[in-house]
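Quick one, T. Sequence first:
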Amino acid sequence: MAKKYKVITLCGSTKFKDEFIKAENELTLKGNVVLSCVFLSHNSDCDIWQNMMEEQQEKIKAMLDEIHKRKIDMADEIFVINKGGYIGSSTRSEIEYATKTGKKVNYLEK
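Structure tokens:
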């Protein structure tokens, strides 16, 4: 029988790219399955948004937010990347969603 690994979804501002990568590496090496964000660049820094109309950007952002909530659904817990204590509105809504659905919430910084 295969070992059951804990599934952890990373949440936080994508401007903390280095912290996301470090957390993903550390949590994986501790024997967890880690689900993260696909675009680890702040929106203004990411090439994907450069030639996109604002309306299309908003649709894609909404879709990515919904996909991230499905990742929370699949997880046993979430790990919040809150560098400097920063938690933006999207991350706050993910924490609320995780809490409402009974997921454990851990933080990078206390």
